[in-house]
Each structure stands twice: as structure tokens, then as C-alpha cells.
Amino acid sequence: MILPVVADRPAAVYFTFTNASDEPVALAAIHIAGANSAEMHKTEGGQMRAVERVAVDAGKSVAFAPGGLHVMAFDLDDSLKSGGTTEMTITFEGGDKLSMPLVIEKMGAGMHADATMDHGAMDHDAMGGMEH
Q1: What Pfam families has UniProt attached to this entry (predicted)?
Q2: Which has the closest alpha carbon to 59: 114, 119, 124, 115?
């Protein structure tokens, strides 16, 4: 998670999601602990727009990175500080969820808030593993 330079602006979240299952999945919502709301966005042709879902075929990865897909986190709690961590939860179509920690950095710190999520075989009771 990259905190904004200017207070009261949204933060950006970047990560790579890997669907290691044998079935396609779709990311339907993102929750960031300490943010009032979070939205998946996509930048294309210099324009940013909200994205309702992100489909990921079996065995494929999708990168949430600057200049493309990314997550915007709005109305940040004062407890979110550079050098700390928070939690991101992805909700999939169908209601399954996967959570992981996020490192919090200040914009321009020269580092990337990067995590790799490995979505293993899906079933309705358990999600697959995560890898960093």
C-alpha cells in the first residue's frame, strides 16, 4: 500500500494475483483494513475508471501495478503509517474470501508495496495458499 503525499488523498495498492486453481475466478471486491472503502481501478489511455470485477483464468496471473489495474483506498485511518502493515481482503464472485498482510509505504519512498497472491484450488469452504 502506497500512502499519498497529500493528506486526505487515496492510497494506491499494487500486487500480483495468481490463480493456481483449475477453474477461472473473478475478483469482485477489495477491502483494506483502515480504509473506509476500496475500489479496483484501471488506467487506460490516460483515463482512470472503476472496475467492477477482474476475471483471472485458471493458471494465469494478473498484475495490479502503476499505469494499469490497481486498487484505490479511500478515507484512510490515521493508524495507517509508513513502515506498518494492514490487511487486504479480496472477495471473489460467489463469496469466497482471501486475506493477506500489506506493507505500508509512503509515496516516493523508492520501494514498491508488492505482494503475490496465489489462489489455490477453490472450494466453498477454504481458499488456497498465499505466497509472497
Answers
A1: PCuAC
A2: 119
What topology is assigned to 2-119 in CATH? Immunoglobulin-like (2.60.40)
Close Cβ partners of 5 (under 8 Å, ≥ 6 residues apart): 106, 107, 108
Residue 103 has pLDDT above 60, yes or no: yes
Confidence label for 8 from pLDDT (cuts 50, 70 and 90): confident
Which pTM does this prediction carry?
A: 0.79
Q: Which residues pair with 119 in a beta bridge?
A: 19
3-state secondary structure at position 95 = coil
Element (H, E) at 13: strand 11-13
Question: What CA–CA distance (Å, rounded) separates 75 from 7?
Answer: 10
- Can you give the residue ranges of every domain in the chain? 2-119
Cell of 14: 499494487
Backbone angles phi, psi at 2, to 5 degrees: -110, 115
C-alpha cell at 37: 472503502
Residue 21 and residue 114: Cα distance in Å, rounded? 22
110 pLDDT more than 80 = no
Give the pLDDT confidence score for residue 94 in this predicted structure. 92
